[in-house]
Amino acid sequence: MNSRVGISILIIKDCREILLGRRKGAHGEGEWALPGGKQEFGENVFATADRELLEECGPDIKIARQRVLCIGDLTAYEGKHFLDVTIACTYMGGEAKVMEPDKCMEWQWFNMGNLPEPLFAPIRDIVNAHLYGYNYWER
């Protein structure tokens, strides 16, 4: 098996909340995760983030100020290995809709200090990268 590049999108609302979806039909089923997905050949990380956000949350949700937040190796799920690049951005408005009901049960906003359980493996490291300035997930 080969590793892949995954893009996670940390959407920050009012400097305290993030958007999480409950995963369905894949590794981490039932866990709360950020929007995101696999990078396609020839696509830069920001284009991947834009495409995945549209595919997963619909055209209504608006973001600004995209930046690369951190990277990490996602190996917590048997048979899966992703180099994950997290893109952080600011929420500007609109509602997230479940556009892929076979992959996501629901979208909700959560305070970064009170995250739901169970969480997709890298979420705590990604939130800590945002809060404390880490540029690579902790070991």
Please outline what is shown here:
The protein has helices at residues 45-57, 123-132, and strands at residues 4-13, 17-23, 32-33, 36-38, 62-74, 82-93, 104-111. The protein is α+β, with helices and mostly antiparallel strands. Strands 1, 2, 3, 4, 5, 6 and 7 form a seven-stranded mixed β-sheet that branches.
Write up what this structure looks like:
The chain has 139 residues and is α+β, with helices and mostly antiparallel strands. It has a single domain (4-132), classed as Nucleoside Triphosphate Pyrophosphohydrolase. It is built from two helices and seven strands, in the order ββββαβββα. The chain is globular and about 40 Å long. The relative contact order is 0.28. The model has no long low-confidence stretch (mean pLDDT 95).
Q: What labels describe this entry?
A:
139 residues; alpha+beta; Nucleoside Triphosphate Pyrophosphohydrolase; seven-stranded mixed sheet
Individual helix count: 2
> Hey, roughly how much beta strand do the residues contain?
35-45%
CATH architecture: Alpha-Beta Complex
**What form results from the Cα inertia axes?**
globular
Report the average pLDDT across residues.
Answer: 95
CATH homologous superfamily label? Nucleoside Triphosphate Pyrophosphohydrolase
Number of domains: 1
Structural class: alpha+beta
Q: Whole-Å distance between the termini?
A: 23 Å
Let me know the number of strands: 7
**Main sheet?**
7 strands, mixed
Whole-angstrom Rg: 14 Å
- Report the helical percentage: 10-25%
- By CATH, the topology is Nucleoside Triphosphate Pyrophosphohydrolase
- CATH class membership: Alpha Beta
Low-confidence stretches: none
